[in-house]
Design brief:
about 210 residues; four-stranded mixed β-sheet; alpha+beta; about 40% helix; five-stranded mixed β-sheet; about 35% strand
Length: about 210
């Protein structure tokens, strides 16, 4: 292309001179005539070069195909592992309400003719209905001395139901009560029979100055 450009430039400047193309190419110092063997060697080199390029391109395509296969495999494995995790977690979440214990809240103390009246809010968040829920309760006076021990049956307790229970504390004024201790759950029965672990699952709280614990 350089030879042709030089030739055209020279021809444009010398319109009055008739130059034969072959003579111009042969005598021009910038565009020497090269033997055919030279161009054959260049052609071979170029052919080898394009062969290398073609080989590299094929290798690149192979690598891309492999990466695509690996990506698809990883995505499938990840989806499968996530599905397995959620599938295994769902059965564990269902019976959570079953293990939720009864919640007792000492809500209020008020004076009565017999001594003191206590109000307890009982919350049963589980699916189990209790036919019997008897607690062993110990009363501590403000000086730390045990003032009274008695039992209370808070049943019946319906499933997923909140209720209010009250009981009288004879011969003891409310201002002499320091705290209550649930010493034990003496009897814990549902429709199907005895329920184990009722004391362990029992939760206590208070809205008064008198503590309720287990």
């Amino acid at each position: 292309m350089r030879c042709v450009a030089n030739f055209l430039q020279l021809r444009g400047r010398c319109h009055h001179v008739k130059i034969v193309l072959n003579q111009n190419l042969a005598t021009s110092p910038k565009c020497p005539l090269l033997p055919i063997s030279h161009w054959q060697r260049r052609t071979k080199v170029d052919t080898r070069h394009w062969g290398i390029v073609k080989s590299n391109a094929m290798e690149s395509l192979s690598v891309i195909r492999i990466l695509k296969r690996i990506s698809i495999s990883c995505a499938f494995v990840l989806s499968l592992s996530l599905w397995t995790t959620f599938a295994s977690a769902e059965p564990d979440a269902a019976p959570a309400s079953e293990t939720s214990g009864v919640q007792l809240e000492l809500n209020k103390l008020e004076s009565s003719d017999k001594g003191c009246r206590a109000y307890i809010v009982v919350n049963n968040p589980a699916e189990t209905s209790y036919q019997s829920y008897k607690i062993d309760l110990v009363l501590f006076q403000t000086d730390g001395v045990i003032g009274k021990r008695f039992s209370i049956d808070l049943a019946p307790l319906k499933a997923k139901k909140k209720s209010v229970k009250l009981f009288e504390i004879d011969a003891i004024k409310c201002d002499r009560i320091g705290s209550f201790l649930i010493n034990d759950v003496m009897e814990c029965k549902a429709d199907a029979g005895p329920v184990p672990g009722c004391l362990d699952h029992l939760k206590t709280s208070t809205l008064t100055n008198v503590q309720l614990s287990k």
